[in-house]
Amino acid sequence: MTCAEGVDWREFHFTAPDGLRLFGRECGPQESRFTPLLCLAGLTRNAKDFEPMAAKLRDRRIIAFDYRGRGRSQYADPATYTPRHELADCVALLDHLCIDKACVVGTSLGGIIAMLMARLQEARIAGAILNDIGPRLEKEGLLRIARLMRQRLEFRSWAEAAKELRAGAPETSGLTDADWQCFAQRLYREEAGRIVCDYDPALALSFPSPEEIAREAQPQLWIQFGALKEKPCAVLRGEFSDLLSEATVREMAAVHKGLITASVSGRGHVPFLDEPESIAAVLRVAERCDGLRQ
């Protein structure tokens, strides 16, 4: 884990299709024969989530942005906090940077957007790395996320925020105290002397309630995932993930015959993407995308 010291991020803003002002950042060479990596964060996370990976892939152009209602992007009508709106924002970002096609690194929600992109904007996606996400989502993980989103977390210091993160993720191993503090600084922001979540509280309205999750069938995204089966693709699963099951990964491999699969030890939902297993999978997919580009 790292706070990504030494990575030269270039910051910018761009306009969403509905006029929102969104924040983006990129690093690495802008002119390169390598396929750019478009990094899409999880539901409540932001562009900072990819700092650990960027520190280990310095020869790649890496692009990330804060979804609407997250980080430094403008807050919006909660009815627009949906994967389809966020996909449209991704396309606007690629257009803003004059990028025809990118390899998508999608964490959790970001992986859902990657699958939607393959289905609805096939020409814009070269390949995908799905970080602890797949076509079937386990209720246990969905319930945990729903409960967390309905809490108004607030801490007195960064040290307290890091301590609470560690306590809430006992399955995560191999991190130092400094690593946990770096993680906290990617998830939260300082506001009026307190440490708070770095997203619009109304985002919780876009996610099903625990009661809805408990009574409804699991979401199924097999059609969307199937749109990736002719493209380079990998799926990462945290060893202790409660959202992506081993059975779902096996079914994904049956659908996508060339799927790269990796289990990331000492991680739950989600891997940080700087682990050796994660970096190896990202590079394998990216290099296959490079081969198709040439």
Structure summary:
The chain is built from ten helices and eleven strands. With about 290 residues, it is an alpha/beta fold.
- C-alpha end-to-end distance: 33 Å
Strand content: 15-25%
Overall pLDDT confidence: 94
Largest sheet: 8 strands, mixed
Describe it:
It is built from ten helices and eleven strands. The chain has 294 residues and is an alpha/beta fold. It has helices at 51-54, 83-96, 109-120, 139-149, 158-167, 177-187, 210-215, 222-226, 246-255, 276-293; strands at residues 10-15, 21-27, 37-40, 62-65, 102-107, 125-131, 154-155, 188-191, 194-197, 233-238, 260-264. An eight-stranded mixed beta sheet has the order 1-2-4-3-5-6-10-11, with helices on both faces. A three-stranded antiparallel beta sheet has the order 7-9-8. α1 links the parallel β3 (37-40) and β4. 34% of the residues lie in helices and 19% in strands.
Topology, element by element:
Layout: E1 10-15, E2 21-27, E3 37-40, H1 51-54, E4 62-65, H2 83-96, E5 102-107, H3 109-120, E6 125-131, H4 139-149, E7 154-155, H5 158-167, H6 177-187, E8 188-191, E9 194-197, H7 210-215, H8 222-226, E10 233-238, H9 246-255, E11 260-264, H10 276-293
State the main characteristics.
single chain, 294 residues, alpha/beta, 8-stranded mixed β-sheet, 3-stranded antiparallel β-sheet, 11 strands
